[in-house]
Amino acid sequence: MVWFWVLVLFTANLKLGLTHIHGGEQPLAKINILQTTVALHESASISAEPVLLGLKGEDTEWITVNFVNPKPSLDDWVGVFSPAKFDPSACPAVNERKKQLPYICSAPIKYKYANESSSYYEKTGTASLRFLLINQRADFSFALFSGGLSDPILVAISNPISFTNPKAPLYPRLAQGKSWSEMTVTWTSGYDIDEAVPFVEWGRKGDLQVRSPAGTLTFKQNSMCGSPASTVGWRDPGFIHTSFLKDLWPNFIYMYRMGHLLYNGSVVWSKTYSFKSSPYPGQNSLQRVVIFGDMGKAERDGSNEYSDYQPGSLNTTDQLIRDLDNIDIVFHIGDLTYSNGYISQWDQFTAQVEPIASTVPYMIASGNHERDWPNSGSFYDTPDSGGECGVPAETMFYYPAENKAKFWYSTDYGLFHFCIADSEHDWREGSEQYRFIEQCLASVDRHRQPWLIFSAHRVLGYSSNDWYSQEGAYEEPMGRDGLQKLWQKYKVDIAFYGHVHNYERSCPIYQNQCVNKEKNHYSGTVNGTIHVVVGGAGSHLSKFSQLIPYWSIYRDYDFGFVKLTAFNQSSLLFEYKKSRDGKVYDSFTISRDYKDVLACVHDGCEPTTLAS
């Protein structure tokens, strides 16, 4: 009987986790594309120009779409489809009994309402729209619909348009390798290994360049765990290549470009990029880290943005680009794209972050919108990933985990040691991940790397978000039960979380108690961990509880990110910046010596003996 109630309580806690699904809806999910009916009208037309894109090597280009509808209405819309050709033969039957096939079985990659650029559209039936397209390995067409999103009626289809080389190597994203002296370059192309050999040409700026081979991965529709990823949201992701640049000299500027050696002997090249190699672990120098979660993606042409789904995404991206010369490494701790099963959005996201990810390591963590799907092995039995069940995230980005399906890893950057947890798999005491977390925290040499950082997507520490306050614990259910003693034993400086779309900083805290009354400067013994929610990088914001807990020092209902600056082994600056202006709205400093890290506090005391 006791075990029965334990099971009931455990299930109830997990169900509380289910209620954490944030409001809002993936814009593409609003389109009932399988219910499209065809009513092509001889007087209706739609056309797009230019027809050939990327003539000067561009991977992004503005398109003008002109259209005429003799029967215009308020809910007419234009969808962008890629590949351009609709293929009803590939569609599953909507009605198995009648074997009725839908005319379109793939969602558009983006859309706009027809009247967006002209308030007179309903009267004239004539308008034009501007779309910004990125190279996504296939041609494009534009379709004019009436009937709104829920009951689409296809009125007209445009001419196809395409990039000059749709297979080109694009959107590089850097990541730390398993060693401090290794950088990985991951990119996307349309070239399989039976067409071309992928590689990276690289070297120190001004020196001889060398070539390193790349591995190639992809994933197929049958790798998806459910709909929409396996149905209307599916789009071929192309081929994802990763090259490992090893034995880097610390603190040097390296140049690199991706190449594909065709079997006729010619090479298809990307643009040339650069990065600065990592400092040696323990190197006493200026080092700057940016951390945020839940940024998502948004469209610079305004398409898809009718549900205000990720309103802060572009502001955060642009602020980071503006400050890129003062950033050394970035951590995006889960909920990357909010594609939610619409695979085309991964290309959109990698294109959006390319200026950042091609220049500094872009380290990621797994969130519920990457991983969670019922009966797929995720800790939370929710449909938040839209059927992706982690596959696109695990393939599109590199991270130095021992097993890519288990999204936990450690990485070093100079004076910092990072332990990145995976909140979508079991982290509780006794689990495989719990053992990893303890090993990661225990392995750091605090004399060389004094700044110890823990991070996870869900709030395994403290948050006064409204739904956590309703549960009464101000945390993810079971979040900190077993982890607090690890944070204290190994004297974790700061723990970062996303999932909650706002910003909040706690006092240095141990077992639910503030252990330091200071707010802006901390010095001396490490006697508690500061917990920071930094999930306000882009997705629609989350409300706080009306009651402010005693441990909550600063709360902000706005979009932003955190920047850590280590000046040396004894001095750290923490800054919370708003995405809209890049200004600092919360900050504190830490000053201490190595002896302060060694000092005995609470559960962090080393055993001693009275023997002489």
From TrEMBL:
Q: What sequence ranges are listed for the domain Calcineurin-like phosphoesterase?
A: 288-503
Record protein name field? Purple acid phosphatase
Q: What PANTHER family has UniProt attached to this entry?
A: INACTIVE PURPLE ACID PHOSPHATASE 24-RELATED, PURPLE ACID PHOSPHATASE-RELATED
**Limits of the Purple acid phosphatase Fn3-like domain:** 46-165
The residue ranges of the Purple acid phosphatase C-terminal domain are 528-587
Q: Which residues form the Purple acid phosphatase N-terminal domain?
A: 172-276
Q: Where is the major localization of this protein?
A: secreted
Family (UniProt): Belongs to the metallophosphoesterase superfamily. Purple acid phosphatase family.
Q: Where in the cell is it found?
A: Secreted
- InterPro entries the record matches: Calcineurin-like_PHP (IPR004843), Fn3_PAP (IPR040974), Metallo-depent_PP-like (IPR029052), MPP_PAP (IPR041792), PAPs_C (IPR025733), PAPs_N (IPR015914), Purple_acid_Pase-like_N (IPR008963)
Q: What are its cofactors? A: Fe cation; Zn(2+)
Give one Pfam family. Answer: Pur_ac_phosph_N
Q: What is its EC number?
A: 3.1.3.2
Signal peptide region: 1-19
**Gene Ontology terms, cellular component aspect?**
extracellular region
Its keywords, alphabetically, are:
Glycoprotein, Hydrolase, Iron, Secreted, Signal, Zinc
Q: Which reaction does it catalyse?
A: a phosphate monoester + H2O = an alcohol + phosphate
One Gene Ontology MF term: acid phosphatase activity
- Partners and quaternary state? Homodimer.
